[in-house]
User: What shape does this take?
Amino acid sequence: MKRIVYILLLCCSCFQLSAQTYDELITRAMDAVEKDSLYQAEQLFKEALRLEPSNMRNALLFSNLGTIQRRMGKNDDAVESYSLALNLTPYSVTMLLNRASLYLEMDYLDKAYVDYCNVIDLDDKNQEALRFRAYIYMRRRQYQDARNDYQRLLEAIPGEKTARIGMAMANQKLNRHRESLEEFNRLIVDYPKDASLLKARAELEIVMNSLEMALLDLEHAAKLDPNDADIYIMCGEIYLAQGKKREAYAVFEKAIELGVPRLLLEDRLKESKK
Assistant: This one.
């Protein structure tokens, strides 16, 4: 008897869903999103799309569906939904950016790159597209291309922190060390409590063989962020290069105290004891 009642209730529920209009389904879907009922929202959007497959608003529905699926961790489904949205509106900057950011999250760099290029073709000053295309260029070791995009971004937003850091790093990779150092100097003046900038300048100083300057930056960084194990590893490498094995051993042990597996530093500890 209970099974019969359950089946009847299920049938009634399905009938109620299918009996609703396109607009009613969308309204219910958006209410479900507001309540974080993502599975229900996904089903309601799908039902609306089935009900009126030729509706001119379906591009937006597919885009919303993709965003919901992304939040649910269903990335492949989200890519498909974004792609269906773009089939209907191929020149939508917002939808291209949505798919590009998902591709980037999935580490599909080539696909993300194509979408970001398409955005820039449509809007050559789009900050998000320039920023992340530059990031992709850096990952690909196309440092001059990355530098060009960071320059364009700085022209659009003078003084933008991420672009300035990107420019400094691209210059470093291009062996434009003086320009890179000058930018890091300016950044550290502007953001004196950012330990990551001190670490970045220290890495450049190591490349430039300014080891004492690098140690000073790392000591300052350690005061700002004493739980960053990488700082101590970097110090240890410098101490080893200087032949200061006792100091190297101490900072490697400090990195282990902060959570670095001893096995990862075993060779460096042995080198410090020779």
Observations:
- The first helix runs from residue 2 to 19.
- Confidence is low (pLDDT under 50) at residues 1-18.
- The chain has 16 helices and no strands.
